[in-house]
Specification:
single chain; mainly alpha; 4 helices; 40% helix; 0% strand
C-alpha cells in the first residue's frame, strides 16, 4: 500500500535576493550597441547601455557596474528603470534645479522693472 504525504510548501528563503538577469531583445541589443559606437551621445547614456549589455552577457551586477563606471546602487536604479520603461527609461529626467533668471527668448523676466541697485 502506497501512502502519500502532503508536506506544506516551504517558506520563502531569507537572505539576499538574486541579482538582476536581463534578457535583451535583438532590437534593444542593436540599439545599445549603436549607443556604444556613437561619438555624439551623452556619456551617461553610453554607460547605462554598457551596463545592460554586460548584464545580458551574464556579468554580475557588481562586476557590470564596476566595468561600466557606475556604483552598484546607481546600476540597480538604471536596471529597474529599464525593466519598467524600456530604453526610454534610460534618459535623464529633468532636474529640480533653480529656474533660469533670464529668459532664453530675451527680454526681462516677469516681476522685474529693469532697475539695478548699486552696492
Amino acid at each position: 500500500m502506497l501512502m502519500l504525504l502532503l508536506l506544506p510548501e516551504p517558506a520563502p528563503m531569507r537572505g539576499r535576493k538574486p541579482s538582476f538577469t536581463i534578457h535583451l531583445s535583438a532590437a534593444h541589443r542593436q540599439e545599445l550597441e549603436h549607443w556604444l559606437r556613437s561619438t555624439n551621445l551623452k556619456q551617461g547614456l553610453a554607460r547605462r547601455g554598457r551596463l545592460l549589455l554586460l548584464l545580458h552577457q551574464g556579468y554580475t551586477l557588481k562586476a557590470a557596474a564596476q566595468t561600466a563606471g557606475l556604483t552598484v546602487r546607481n546600476a540597480r536604479k538604471w536596471v529597474k528603470r529599464y525593466l519598467a520603461l524600456g530604453l526610454s527609461g534610460l534618459a535623464d529626467k529633468p532636474g529640480r534645479g533653480r529656474k533660469p533668471v533670464f529668459s532664453p527668448l530675451g527680454g526681462t523676466p516677469p516681476g522685474q522693472d529693469r532697475l539695478r541697485t548699486t552696492g
